[in-house]
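sanity check this fold:
=====
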Amino acid sequence: MPDETKPNQATGPQQPAKPAETKPAEVKPAAPAAAKPPAATPAAAAKPPAAPPKPTGPVPEPWDSEMVSGFKRRFGSGIREASTYVGQKYMVVDASIVREVLQLLHHDEQFDYCVDVTAVHYPKRERQFDLVWILYSFPRNERIRVKTQLKDGEAAPSVAAIWPTADWLEREVFDMFGIGFEGHPGLKRILLPDGWKGHPLRKDYPILQQDTEWVKINLGIESGQ
């Protein structure tokens, strides 16, 4: 009976079994990285955002009333415009009918107070001046403006006989703008000396200009001294 504890001499000693060979895992190439956008140039990075559009300002709106309709029926195209601007009512009137319109506003429409008479100068325009009467009605509690356009050297009708307050107001317009008023009881300068040359509220009158001749004669000094 053979000894089972001894190795088989015929077959020799048995070698331990080799482990099964394993193939290395296949390495897949990495996917290419996504292309990065080009960096912004300094000029592009410093460019400010576009400014938002400016809001539109108020615009005149048509003014229609029984009074305005009556003037239009009477004077036709002589009433060039009747509008309101930010709640302020105004009429633009031809210079040939402006005194009659102003008189009707006083007598028939109860505009019993002449608040102001003033002007605006547009030197590049053919009719360089807007002459403006600001009127108020105490009974109606209403304020309106009447405007007309004048050429340089063209006179306006005086309304001092209708509103006594217009006396000094017209003198100020004459002094500062050089606009004459036909029928004024005593049209002369009110702020500057009578002999002063020029009209300081005209836009072609330099802000530092003085009548050097008047200053030298009347004050005995050089202008600006």
